[in-house]
Amino acid sequence: MKKIICFILVCFLVLPTMSVAAVSTSAKAAILINGDTGEVIYEQNADEKLPMASTTKIMTALLLCENGDFEKEITVTAEMLRVEGSSMGLLANDKVTFHDLLYGLLLASGNDAANVVAFALGGTVNGFVGLMNKKAEQLGLNSTHFVTPSGLDADGHYTTARDLSTLARIAMQNKDFALAASCESAVLNYGNPPYRRSLTNHNKLLKTFDGAVGVKTGFTKKSGRCLVSAARRDGKYLIAVTLNDANDWKDHTELLEYGFNEIKLVDISPKKTKYSIPVVNGEQVSLDIKIEPYAVSFFKNNDFSCEVNLPKFLYAPINKGDIIGSVVYKKGETLIDKVDILANKDIDLKKQNMKITEILLENIKHIFLNLWEK
């Protein structure tokens, strides 16, 4: 009896120090990050270089969003369509806009769309791949290398779960990208002549997971099933990546639920939220500013900071909606968000019917304000 009691006591003493994984996946590599901060919540072989199939199109779509005129119409050529696999249904001589190509990339996972974007922005597929790798280098994706814009298997075409989560986080900060990635379906117009047609997103989580907002599926025989997902719920934001995962839908559901249970919300608004900024030569002498509350989620480290950037004075006229400053939010040295501070009303120029003494006083005020600014 004493031996049993001693064994139970030892178990209670040891259990708190044991490291037991609260979640796991069937993937060859996986990662779950806080979408707000990039903080890693779970990882599994996250730095192993692996093929990523059509999740490659996250980079293709990001470059399109950053460099393409959405209204520009491209005439598709037979050379652009020399690619196999999934398609948005483009044919030679079709006319298609960059806008519709974006949705063809992210919803239909069109390899034809990827090739057309490559020719339109890079001149050739190889030229565009050069842009992809340059962008990867700029973003610090040091374990990523692209060979195709579509994600079709090719020697030297690889990434890691960690790099892919970073790329997805950056891409989702682009409003056009995020809007397309979150669409369950879209009605577009392209063809020769363009005609109405609809595309459905391959990402099932948009329908099955509460709060899902993206991002991209992928599959080839070499890569296996690849999935990048993102979800927002109750002010929390998560991004999950799995590479070579036969049970990706189930694994992402469990990863995201785990993340939402583990991360916490904190208000990181500046201590001072109300400001009154002098207005030079305005019908009103000052503009009152109120900074809205700002909350962010965190997993372990709560090392947040914020910096309010406002001018010492403003010149009239001021229009409602003018950007007059910003609040910069950081976690350590990592930028979380930069929120513009907008004028909340119009302030017109002061009418020029002032007396001589008023003009002199106004000029003196200008001199002192300029000295203060210096």
Fold topology:
Elements (H helix, E strand, L loop, with lengths): L1 H13 L14 E6 L5 E5 L12 H11 L5 E3 L19 E3 H9 L4 H12 L2 H14 L22 H11 L3 H7 L3 E7 L2 E7 L4 H4 L3 E9 L3 E10 L2 E8 L4 H15 L1 E4 L6 E7 L5 E5 L4 E4 L5 E6 L4 E2 L7 E9 L2 E9 L13 H18 L1
Parallel strand pairs: 11-15
Antiparallel strand pairs: 1-2, 1-9, 3-4, 5-6, 7-8, 8-9, 10-13, 11-12, 14-16, 16-17
Helix pairs in contact: 2-3, 2-4, 3-4, 4-5
Main attributes of the structure:
single chain, 374 residues, alpha+beta, Beta-lactamase, Peptidoglycan synthesis regulatory factor (PBP3), Domain 2, 2 domains, 5-stranded antiparallel sheet, 3-stranded mixed sheet, 10 helices, 17 strands, 30% helix, disordered N terminus
Briefly characterize the structure.
With 374 residues, this protein is of the alpha+beta class. 30% of the residues lie in helices and 28% in strands.
Detailed description of the structure:
By secondary structure, the chain is an alpha+beta fold. The chain has two domains: 29-262, Beta-lactamase (3-Layer(aba) Sandwich); 274-373, D-Ala-D-Ala carboxypeptidase, C-terminal domain (Peptidoglycan synthesis regulatory factor (PBP3), Domain 2), CATH 2.60.410.10. It has helices at residues 2-14, 57-67, 98-106, 111-122, 125-138, 161-171, 175-181, 205-208, 248-262, 356-373; strands at residues 29-34, 40-44, 73-75, 95-97, 185-191, 194-200, 212-220, 224-233, 236-243, 264-267, 274-280, 286-290, 295-298, 304-309, 314-315, 323-331, 334-342. Strands 2-1-9-8-7 form a five-stranded antiparallel beta sheet, sandwiched between helices. A hairpin with a 2-residue loop joins strand 5 (185-191) and strand 6 (194-200). The longest helix has 18 residues, at 356-373. The model is unreliable at 1-20 (pLDDT under 50).
